[in-house]
Amino acid sequence: MDKPYKSVKKTLYRLFLVIGCGIGLFIKLGLYQGKIKWYTLMYYTNWSNFFVFVLFLFLLLFPEYNNSKKLLNIKGGVTMMMLLTGFIYHFLLNGRDFNMEPITTTKGLGSFLLHYYTPFLVFLDWILWDKKGMFFQKAAFFWTIIPYIYMVLIFCIASKGSFIPNQNTSYPYKFIAVDLLGWERVVVNIIALSACYIAAGYVYVIFDKLLSKAMQHKR
Fold this sequence. Notes:
This protein is an all-alpha fold. Helix content is 68%, strand content 0%. It is globular.
């Protein structure tokens, strides 16, 4: 059971996380202009942040599930999604396929919130508040399910035509753009990314278990 002061701090922290994530989605989906931009639903960033928004809103409304093993494993998967979002945007996309506008602009603020603010706070939330040592042994494999579902949906949608304005491809990201790279290169990219994602997932699980053991020794 959380001590009262710790519970209040956790609630306030997660409230700021949900608010920032919600504002980012409100901007990036085009809702601030009064109309949703449906093509933005093709971006993984918006998918991962939507899962964050729903999960953390649920935890705020139903804090009794904070230490549920199943929910902590789901939360671990969402954390991995956010790490993938931040990593790919910062190291592979920003300055290449995408250029983030200044944070003083509306679009720049939206990009910052979804690509940096939310991923960092979600990861820090795990460090600060989550009960450690709760991940399933094969969690790293289960955490790939949503990214793979996303990938299948994108391939299906892109095969119907181009829906994203001002792009020379039907795909939201060039590293999966079959119409630019061909299937062979795209499959290689997906395999490489999957291997890195699963490996990172196992590192995450191992690190979580090590933290759990370290905490037990302190007691």
